[in-house]
Design brief:
2 copies of one chain form a homodimer. The relative contact order of chain A is 0.14. Chain A has helices at about 60-75, 95-110, 130-145, 150-160, 210-225, 260-280, 300-315, 315-320, 330-335, 370-375, 400-410; strands spanning about 20-25, 40-45, 50-55, 80-85, 120-125, 145-150, 170-175, 180-185, 200-205, 230, 240-245, 290-300, 350, 355-360, 360, 380-385, 390-400. In chain A, the strands form 3 sheets. Chain A has a 7-stranded mixed β-sheet with strand order 10-17-12-16-13-14-15. Chain A contains 11 helices and 17 strands. Chain A is of the alpha+beta class. The radius of gyration of chain A is 22 Å and the shape is globular. Chain A has 2 domains: about 20-280, 4-Layer Sandwich (L-amino peptidase D-ALA esterase/amidase), CATH 3.60.70.12; about 290-410, ArgJ beta chain, C-terminal domain (Ubiquitin-like (UB roll), Roll). In chain A, α1 (about 60-75) packs across α2 (about 95-110) and α5 (about 210-225) packs across α6. Chains A and B meet through α2, α8, α9, β15 and α11 of A and α2, α8, α9, β14 and α11 of B.
Chain lengths: ~425, ~425
């Protein structure tokens, strides 16, 4: 938390509106960090539904195992999410599972609900036992001091879940044609890779949406946002996105997929998830540049995404971007190693609006100075057409700098 | 070439014996580098056979395309390998293919052989047109000044093919039960990943071995050496390993796979390839530590290798190693993201001989100080048992340091 704020950070935390049916609280449980709030609890009204998407890691944390199980057992009903920062409760064996169970039971007792309606998330160091007793002690006072989700509540919640994040992350969007809205917070910086790498995001709406529809909307939103970003290819054991619908907006429930309001909700959810995903990239450990990689002309969209990640994840591409070096040969290398179909002799490459290569060779009037000028900005764009089909994809990443080494060679100290 | 010599480098270039039937020459063609030899030619006696293994990149360089084609057309007969450093002749379109053809034709004319008996390799910047005229001019004098492959010849050849390498790489081994030997040189530092990432190696034996047997031996040797190392996961467009057999040792030809001498040859070839592969890791860009990753208990050997690479390629593991930080939680993370079967609750992890974790939790008597002491050495070892089967694999990699960023944010300058 001592790193300077990322140069790519938004100017300030956004003004997030309250969401009817959501109450928040944070406290300092001293689980790992001293002198700061490290526990966040959000309580949603009785009757709320929930959806979740989790890490693809085969060594998931105890809270991830808990949430997956609870989602099924509660039939998509939920009352709370409790999140602590500083300790991931991952690779902690049976003791970790018990800590998760005890936490859910304690909150369930305070809220008079089923433990399976209590969701959990933990983020921080892996392999160290969670100081469960400190977390449990904090829950009583947290639940006693719940406040409505007014702007300051959101900001405090977004701050409490930070680890190496240099700024708090939040976003909101109204749902057109309803009284409802979508509000989300997130954390994440290093260890961000496709398929839900190290990040947490909790998203809330005051609309009434059935759990199956909610799950379907969340999966779609995550596919186009959190699963399209990468910082360092590493994937955490703890990644979790949870979406809660409180049914407190006063709108009629949305219970079938033909309801036109569902499309408007999806739009708002997509906007919030993409904004949060971009904020996570902007807080990539050591990031100096926000990088958009566009791939077109691939065999299909999946192949395009694989090529885009091959470019965006390449350490050689990322270090060239850090140096504002228009070394487009490294982009060719990354396309070649992706394993996806590409026609070398049709390949076209752009750095910003400057076309470097066409038909598999350097473009005759390519002006490296213009490309370099583009790369000297904080927001840069690479575009590649691989010349074999109509598949396309966009991913977002950051450059690889000395800052990344500094942060990750000293994380636990 | 201005980087200090890697701290992991061998003390000196080895004393390599001459290989009967191999003549060498180097010269300064000023293709990219000034004031140093940048072209190497090795001429082998008439009647020599050849085998080759090449990059998996789908955007291969012109020389790689040339060699693949020539191997088939020459039916495994060869007379020469020409290698230039500084320009990879990759992503250079039809002009690149023509430069390759002209080079092979020029050498073929000097040696009075087929162009398809002339193999080519280029390493360096991608996407810039090769200064073919400078290379062609150099060939006459190179061929005129060929010397036997005495120790100084090998060293000059190994130096001429360097790019960002901080030391020249060579290795040799006698073939038991014969008068023959195996001698190889290599280059490579950054952009080293499995499946023949950026590296070149030229290996010679004076035994007589048919081309099909030679190819089979080379594939096996590469599988256990060059394909088991990784520096930064990037894969080059130019990787090439060529193996020549000159038939000049005076031994009877080896023409069938039951010949017991073939096993002895394979042993020597394996030793040379593994030694060269380790030297490449020791010259990883910015490398401060030589890292061995052992995985056991996987579903099969292939799964074990995938897990080992997931660990060895993880930026978070590599930065922890750079800092001598015994953060074994990052190893758990890397196992989890590998996508391979692993039993979280059977996982066991060692740093050197210190066991950190067993049965999915931190070992009760784990002593972090002992693990840290191990990591403070120049050669470190990680071992993981994933508890699901009998598959095992070993890979070699290096740590990720500020040096990597320094080198790769300024490669072209």
């Amino acid at each position: 938390m001592t790193s300077p704020i990322s140069p790519l950070a938004p100017k300030s935390f956004p003004e997030l509106p309250p969401v009817a049916g959501v109450q928040l609280s944070t406290c300092a449980a001293n689980i790992h960090y001293a002198g700061r709030d490290d526990v966040m609890i959000a309580v949603v009204d009785s009757g709320s539904t929930v959806a979740g998407v989790f890490t693809q890691s085969l060594c998931p944390s105890a809270p991830v195992d808990w949430c997956r199980d609870a989602l099924g057992r509660s039939e998509g009903n939920a009352r709370a999410i409790v999140c602590n920062s500083g300790n991931a409760n991952a690779f902690t064996g049976a003791a970790g599972d018990e800590a998760a169970l005890h936490t859910a039971e304690a909150v369930a007792s305070l809220l008079d609900c089923s433990p399976f309606e209590v969701h959990l998330a933990s983020t921080g160091v892996i392999g160290e036992r969670l100081r469960e007793e400190r977390l449990l002690v904090s829950l009583d006072s947290s639940v006693a001091s719940l406040v409505s989700s007014a702007p300051e509540g959101w900001k405090a919640a977004a701050n409490a879940i930070r680890t190496t994040d240099t700024f708090a992350k939040g976003s909101s969007a109204p749902v057109e044609g309803t009284k409802g809205k979508v509000v989300g917070i997130a954390k994440g910086s290093g260890m961000i890779a496709p398929d839900m790498a190290t990040m947490l995001s909790f998203v809330f709406t005051d609309l009434a949406i059935t759990a199956p529809l909610l799950q379907q909307c969340l999966a779609a939103a995550v596919g186009g946002s959190f699963n399209r970003i990468s910082v360092d290819t590493d994937t955490s054991t703890s990644d979790t996105v949870l979406l809660f619908a409180t049914a407190a907006s006063g709108d009629d429930p949305i219970a079938n997929r033909d309801d036109p309001r569902l499309g408007k909700f999806q739009d708002a959810l997509d906007d919030v998830c993409l904004d949060l995903a971009h904020q996570i990239v902007r807080d990539g450990e050591g990031a100096g540049k926000f990088v958009t990689v566009n791939v077109t002309g691939a065999a299909d969209d999946e192949a395009a995404a694989a090529i885009a990640f091959s470019i965006g994840d390449s350490p050689l591409v990322k270090t060239a971007l850090a140096a504002s070096d228009a070394n487009w040969g490294r982009i060719v290398m990354a396309v070649g190693k992706s394993g996806q179909a590409a026609d070398r002799d049709s390949l076209a490459i752009w750095i910003g609006s400057e076309q470097c290569a066409e038909a598999g060779v350097m473009k005759a009037d390519y002006d490296e100075e213009r490309a370099t000028l583009h790369l000297q900005q904080l927001e840069v764009e690479l575009k590649v057409d691989v010349g074999v089909g109509n598949g396309s994809a966009t991913i977002w990443t950051c450059d690889l700098t000395h800052g990344y080494i500094d942060i990750n060679a000293g994380y636990r100290s």
